[in-house]
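Q: What residues go here?
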């Protein structure tokens, strides 16, 4: 079928809106008409010079939309269903069976190469040449997407579908890292380093969990102000050289939990150093360079944990996030600003400049 997509043809070039052709959904697949697609910093990886995801490619991994067609062997879904798209996993390896699909044996190739496991390519350009369209199993910067049925979460048709896509990755990552991976409980303390969409989702989740002290650390006064409105009990300017001292002043012995979404080594060292004994720091961002820790930092029982997608099972966790939003306890919609697909380059720059927390593209709106 014919569709439109924002195609990245060069790592240092702009997205180009093109007419493309999509194959029919294969076994276990769906054709989804995209209602909204969030822009996440992970979508910048195909721009990295030595990164293996190569143009031409369609990125986008926070999609939502309406099922238009189902392929063979699909059960539990039908045309007209409203769905949120999320990360791909095999659902058959040991970690998937154990309820940890984000740690699927094939997670990296399924989600971060753009070509998946080398199965048939679902997208071609006007000249019949293949375009990589398996980014996180969805490549949702397009009017339509071919998605594995295991890759979607059905939602109620009364919900504002166009803004739900970011729940499938960035907001799931921040919230589930707090509620599942770290297991933050009532009365505890947590410091969140970086207050983009992931960090602010963590702040909101920490409030849901009942954390007594929720400390947001960032260099943007505007983001820190928003963090305070969304649940942070304290905010710290991350550009100062006494972040650790300030956190210990707030907590006494340090935080029980910390979460870093910046990937900046110096910030991570501060996050770990500012933990109390037995405290745990979760790392979400790709670390930008070598991470060197002083020998004494971990000697006192502090822990460091790498986290993917919050260790969530999306089909279980996303309905809970939506319930919290409907109760007014997880107001993720305050982070969203929408753009037509044709303004994708403007939206990308707005995200990079920190002008918009979560840009959401509307390919059909």
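A:
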């Amino acid at each position: 079928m014919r569709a439109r997509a924002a195609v990245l043809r060069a790592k240092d070039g702009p997205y180009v809106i093109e007419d493309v052709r999509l194959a029919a959904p294969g076994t276990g697949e769906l054709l989804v008409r995209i209602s909204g697609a969030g822009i996440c910093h992970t979508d910048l990886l195909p721009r990295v010079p030595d990164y293996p995801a190569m143009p031409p490619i369609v990125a986008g991994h926070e999609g939502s939309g309406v099922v238009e067609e189902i392929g063979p062997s699909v059960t539990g879904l039908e045309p007209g269903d409203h769905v949120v798209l999320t990360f791909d996993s095999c659902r058959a390896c040991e970690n998937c069976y154990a309820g940890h699909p984000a740690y699927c044996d094939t997670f990296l190739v399924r989600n971060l190469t753009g070509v998946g496991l080398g199965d048939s390519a679902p997208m071609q350009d006007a000249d019949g040449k293949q375009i990589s369209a398996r980014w996180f199993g969805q490549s949702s910067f397009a009017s339509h997407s071919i998605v594995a049925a295991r890759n979607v979460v059905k939602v109620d048709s009364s919900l504002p579908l166009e803004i739900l896509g970011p729940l499938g990755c960035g907001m799931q990552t921040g919230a589930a890292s707090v509620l599942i991976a770290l297991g933050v409980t009532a009365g505890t303390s947590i410091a969140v380093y970086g207050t983009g969409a992931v960090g602010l989702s963590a702040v909101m989740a920490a409030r849901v969990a009942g954390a007594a002290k929720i400390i947001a650390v960032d260099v943007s006064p505007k983001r820190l102000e928003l963090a305070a409105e969304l649940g942070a009990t304290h905010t710290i300017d991350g550009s100062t050289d006494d972040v650790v001292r300030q956190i210990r002043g707030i907590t006494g012995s340090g935080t029980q939990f910390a979460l870093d979404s910046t990937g900046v080594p110096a910030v991570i060292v501060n996050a770990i150093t500012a933990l109390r004994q037995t405290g745990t720091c979760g790392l979400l961002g790709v670390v930008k360079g070598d991470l060197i820790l002083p020998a004494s930092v971990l000697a006192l029982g502090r822990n460091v944990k790498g986290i993917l997608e919050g260790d969530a099972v999306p089909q279980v966790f996303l309905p809970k996030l939506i319930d919290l939003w409907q109760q007014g306890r997880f107001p993720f919609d305050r982070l969203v600003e929408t753009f037509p697909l044709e303004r994708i380059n403007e939206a990308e720059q707005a995200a990079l400049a920190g002008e918009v927390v979560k840009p959401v593209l509307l390919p059909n709106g």
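A: Context that may help when evaluating the design: Residues 171-308 form a domain with the Rossmann fold fold (CATH 3.40.50.720). The CA atoms of residues 8 and 275 lie 41 Å apart.
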